[in-house]
Design a protein that fits this description.
This is G-TYPE LECTIN S-RECEPTOR-LIKE SERINE/THREONINE-PROTEIN KINASE SD2-5. InterPro entries: Bulb-type_lectin_dom (IPR001480), Bulb-type_lectin_dom_sf (IPR036426), G-type_lectin_kinases/EP1-like (IPR051343). It comes from Salix viminalis (Common osier). There is one protein chain. The protein is built from one helix and 31 strands. The protein folds into three domains: about 140 residues, Bulb-type lectin domain (Agglutinin, subunit A); about 120 residues, Bulb-type lectin domain (Agglutinin, subunit A, Orthogonal Prism); about 50 residues, Laminin, CATH 2.10.25. It is globular. By secondary structure, the chain is mostly beta strands. The structure holds 2-acetamido-2-deoxy-beta-D-glucopyranose (NAG) (3 copies). The site of one 2-acetamido-2-deoxy-beta-D-glucopyranose has 4 residues, from loops.
């Protein structure tokens, strides 16, 4: 059994800053409420507008993600999850306990993890907000914990990536486990993308950065007009990342580090229109970084954005595609980034070459 749980929730203790949720109407999730991972249409805790929901999402036959997703679009795009490396099994529950802790229990009632560790007093209630932020609040309405402080692979408008925080790409498009790339706002103030030491999330090779180094206290902000930028603690904008003003009232927005290692800004029309899908913002300015990941990642050892022995090319859609050179084929057809292997055993010691497969 894979017990590689993300144990580092200690930082929640440091984040008990009062955060104003005034003026935001929401339905409370009261103490004692719970949701169960079952088959069929699952109940969820939705935001007042219904645009976001918190609950379980089934991932094929593998189990359930405790997640937040865009709830009004057919794609049900996931923007946050609590247990991407350790899916919950059928019958698991998430509960806001009587003492105000948010916990994930397996079918037998054994605690899989504290989703949010709140220390002593616990929350008075929870709420799924219309911004896509799930919050646990104290008696006075102060925010004790918020999903926005524990991002997975996606940022939403009004969300801030704080110094030291990171986004980890999913493993594949439909496999939400920690993947091979990450975006981190380093303590030195620089926003950097790295390949990771998969299956660990430690940084290996930096392939893009803003070069901002104003010092500690920088933040990555996704503001309400759809701009994404690094800002110094003084409030000075240091580096724009995306500058695509797209009206928030007409489009859903997100900025996601995808499984291919590219950080992209996406929009999705809210109004009824044909051919609705997540698209990159239709502007002339940048809506993904790095501009060419194939060029950005090239180790001396010949392993790049597509893995060992492979070839990486940006397609017309500006997305990297992986290929194997002549005489090589993918190790795993379903996972091209594992790289390519030779089709033939190399000829040595005078043995005739032999078909490998
Ligand atoms: C949510 O719960 C808190 C604490 O019990 C209460 O003060 C607040 O009025 C409630 N809000 C709503 C919208 O029910
Ligand atoms: C996702 O990929 C990882 C790595 O190959 C694998 O261990 C895991 O089982 C996959 N998860 C699902 C749900 O297929
Ligand atoms: C978002 O940032 C841009 C660029 O700094 C600025 O022009 C715009 O006014 C900001 N929007 C909001 C709502 O703060």
């Amino acid at each position: 059994m894979n017990l590689r749980l993300p144990y580092c929730f200690c930082f929640f203790l440091l984040l008990q800053l009062p955060f104003s949720t005034n003026g935001q109407a929401y339905k409370n999730v009261s103490l004692g409420s719970s949701l169960t991972a079952a088959s069929g249409d699952l109940p969820a805790w939705t935001s007042p507008s219904g645009e976001f929901a918190f609950g379980f999402q089934q991932v094929g036959d593998a189990g359930y993600l405790l997640a937040i997703w865009f709830n009004k679009i057919p794609e049900r795009t996931i923007v946050w999850s609590a247990n991407r490396n350790n899916l919950a099994q059928r019958g698991s529950t998430v509960q806001l306990t009587a003492d105000g802790q948010l916990v994930l229990n397996d079918r037998s009632g054994t605690r899989i993890r504290n989703t949010a560790y709140l220390g002593g007093s616990g929350a008075a209630y929870g709420a799924m907000l219309d911004t896509g932020n799930f919050v646990l609040s104290g008696q006075a309405g102060d925010t004790l914990w918020q999903s926005f402080d524990e991002p997975t692979d996606t940022l939403l408008p009004t969300q801030i990536l704080k110094s030291g925080a990171q986004l980890i790409a999913p493993y594949l498009e439909k496999n939400y486990s920690d993947g091979r790339f990450k975006l981190i706002l380093q303590d030195d103030g620089n926003l950097v993308m790295y390949t990771t030491a998969y299956p660990l999330t430690t940084s290996i090779f930096p392939y893009w950065s803003t070069g901002s180094s104003e010092g500690s206290g920088n933040q990555l902000i996704f503001n309400q007009s759809g701009y994404v930028y690094v800002v110094a603690s003084s409030g000075t904008i240091l580096n724009p990342v995306f500058s695509n003003p797209v009206p928030l009232q007409d489009f859903y927005h997100r900025a996601t580090i995808d499984y291919d290692g590219v950080f992209r800004q996406y929009v999705y029309p809210k109004s009824a229109s044909s051919g609705k899908r997540w698209a990159m913002a239709l502007t002339t300015s940048t809506n993904f970084v790095p501009p060419d990941i194939c060029l950005a990642i090239s180790y001396p050892l010949g392993s790049g954005a597509c893995g060992f022995n492979s070839l990486c090319e940006l397609g017309d859609d500006q997305r990297p595609s992986c290929r194997c050179p002549t005489g090589y084929s993918f190790y795993d057809q379903d996972d091209e980034r594992k790289g390519c292997k030779k089709n033939f055993i190399s000829q040595d010691c005078g043995h005739p070459s032999q078909r490998n497969r």
